[in-house]
Amino acid sequence: MLSRTPAQRLCRPLRSHRTRPLVNRARAGVSSTRGQAAPAAGRCPMFCDRGSVAAMGLERIRIVLVRPQHAGNVGAAARAMKNMGLERLVLVAPQRWDPAQATTMAVHAADVLAQLRQVESLAAAVADCGLVVGTSGRATAAQLGALPPRTLAPEIVAASAANDVALVFGPEDHGLSNDDLACCQRVVSIPTAAAYGSLNLAQAVVVCVYELLLAAGGADSGGATASAGVAPTGTAATADGTRTLAANARLELMYAKLETALFAIGFLHRDTAAPMMRALRRTLGRAALDEQEASVFLGLARQIAWAAAERQKGPVEGT
After folding, report:
1. Which pLDDT does position 55 carry in this prediction?
2. Contacts of 23 (CB under 8 A, 6+ apart)
3. What is the per-residue pLDDT for 227?
4. CA–CA distances in Å: residue 121 to residues 66, 92, 118, 124, 180
5. 82-118, pLDDT tens digit by residue?
6. Cα(144)–Cα(85) distance, rounded to whole angstroms?
7. Rounded to whole angstroms, how far apart are CA atoms 235 and 245?
8. Residues of the chain with pLDDT under 70
């Protein structure tokens, strides 16, 4: 057998495709681990640790999967999250939940699955969030003011400097419902080829979280970063970055009071109330209300309801 030179030995084929790197480490901006301590068991050295997540400003962004139908997709979504430096996963009423199948698809992201939360409603999943961003692949998404992930990602990252933020994905078969989207202040729509626009759930997650990673400056973003002193659309800059927005639970109370008040004065009617309230939600959602501004609208709703009740009483006798 002919002897092999050192160069030939280095060029020998890999024994298994499983050991092939997912990306070119030099191109991805990942430094070599040669000479460093081996990573902890169950962790891939390419993945971000908790400290790097905090450094990139992604630790307050959660991924919410609404009524996911396949546990494997949840696991694949968790893997995509860890690839891009996110850790917080919330499941809303998952169907046929199989933790073992999810763990298999998660590969090195089992820790993301281990700390996920399960809740029964989208409202519960996002109650404490200052910004809730829904996703939609419908042809009518533009009517909801939907924007591509790359356009909206800097706003999401900027808002997460002072708020918990949720990025919400719907079930695999039909996506988020109108009621689900009504809970969201902003909507993301991923551009696709016209021939076939349907994305797998995990594919949609990885596209969106990749754009968040770029916007946070966690990779070669080509300048698409969210600076603390710059307020993207829907946010307001302050001395320390982005202001604190009203929690989603507070906004839902505000919308409920406004709807009741607008019914009381005859502005809303049963057959047109739903589309009118969706339009109102979109308008105020783009305004990114803070706590004080939400309180103003709550006061407005109370005053309208009081005036309507007084009008129903009629004039006081003797006046």
Report:
1. 45
2. 30, 46
3. 41
4. 8, 6, 9, 5, 10
5. 999 999 999 999 998 999 999 999 999 999 999 999 9
6. 29
7. 9
8. 1-56, 218-242, 314-319
Q: How many CB atoms lie within 10 A of CB 315?
A: 7
What is the pLDDT, as a whole number, of residue 286?
87
Domain ranges of the chain: 50-228, 248-313
User: 133 to each of 10, 70, 80, 160, how far by Cα in Å?
Assistant: 48, 22, 18, 12
Cβ(137)–Cβ(175) below 8 Å: yes
**CATH number, domain 248-313:** 1.10.8
Q: Which CATH architecture best describes the domain 50-228?
A: 3-Layer(aba) Sandwich (3.40)
What pLDDT was estimated at residue 312? 82
Taking CA atoms, 105 is separated from 239, 310, 314, in Å, by: 43, 61, 66
Identify the pLDDT of residue 284. 92
Q: Measured on CA atoms in the order 231, 236, 241, 243, is the torsion positive or negative?
A: negative
